[in-house]
């Protein structure tokens, strides 16, 4: 059995692998992680060959958490399919993060998302319903300090030019995302294995005059994807705010939803 970690993207045929697991005891409570392993040889798990242990005691203690992930990693990850399936969520994120109704941010900024895989999330953090786990998300400018356009793999100058063209036709513009998928940020932060995927969404509807934007989009985004916010509860909250679909809607409605969700789940935890 090869000692490799593999991630396959069926859309582009990308295969990233790491042949040498981190040389550290996988049991987080192992006291030797801080003092060193002098006189001990770290041995890989015989089944998955993806983690190491300094002793049989550590391996046994870690088994409760490791057993669900103890398998040869040759995982097919449909990155693009997941993004398309969650188009409804990403459209909302783009609208809020880039403040398309009140600013021109969509013309020169993009949403930068750092994520990892659900099978890399420690069991203590609970179940993750989707293949990915959001670590953080932020809005990043496409301009450098000297005003020149920054070249970002997967996001081209053409995207921002077409965003301006959509705006000229009366729409909001083209929203650009950059997803950065990290292999093992919790247990092995030094692992630099990274897959970057861009995603674009054309927002062709006109901006909504007088509409304010929520400041809680990051919490809602990570809360839904990471399984901390129930979609059932979210649907109920949205259902309670049907005014969102009326022309004379209350501009604070979306912020009310965020506030209501804070009552369901401690988003900031």
Automatic annotation (TrEMBL):
Protein's organism: Collybiopsis confluens
Keywords on record: Metal-binding, Zinc, Zinc-finger
Boundaries of every MYND-type domain copy: 27-70
GO MF, one example: zinc ion binding
SUPFAM superfamilies in UniProt: HIT/MYND zinc finger-like
Name recorded for this polypeptide: MYND-type domain-containing protein
Superkingdom classification of source: Eukaryota
């Amino acid at each position: 059995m090869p000692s490799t970690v593999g991630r396959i993207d069926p859309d582009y045929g990308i295969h990233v692998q790491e042949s040498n697991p981190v040389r550290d005891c996988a049991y987080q409570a192992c006291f030797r992680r801080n003092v060193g392993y002098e006189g001990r040889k770290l041995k890989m798990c015989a089944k998955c060959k993806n983690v190491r242990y300094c002793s049989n005691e550590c391996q046994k203690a870690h088994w409760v958490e490791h057993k669900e992930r103890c398998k040869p990693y040759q995982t097919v990850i449909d990155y693009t399919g997941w993004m398309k399936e969650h188009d409804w969520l990403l459209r909302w994120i783009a609208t809020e993060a880039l403040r398309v109704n009140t600013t021109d941010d969509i013309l020169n900024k993009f949403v930068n998302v750092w994520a990892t895989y659900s099978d890399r999330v420690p069991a203590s953090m609970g179940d993750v319903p989707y293949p990915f786990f959001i670590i953080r998300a932020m809005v990043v400018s496409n301009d450098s300090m000297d005003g020149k356009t920054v070249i970002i793999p997967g996001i081209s100058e053409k995207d921002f030019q077409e965003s301006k063209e959509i705006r000229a036709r009366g729409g909001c513009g083209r929203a650009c995302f950059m997803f950065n998928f990290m292999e093992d940020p919790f247990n092995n932060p030094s692992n630099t294995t990274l897959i970057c995927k861009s995603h674009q969404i054309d927002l062709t509807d006109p901006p909504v005059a007088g509409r304010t934007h929520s400041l809680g989009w990051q919490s809602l985004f990570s809360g839904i994807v990471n399984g901390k916010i129930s979609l059932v509860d979210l649907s109920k909250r949205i259902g309670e705010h049907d005014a969102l679909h009326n022309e004379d809607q209350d501009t604070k409605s979306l912020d009310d939803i965020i506030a209501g969700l804070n009552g369901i789940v401690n988003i900031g935890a």
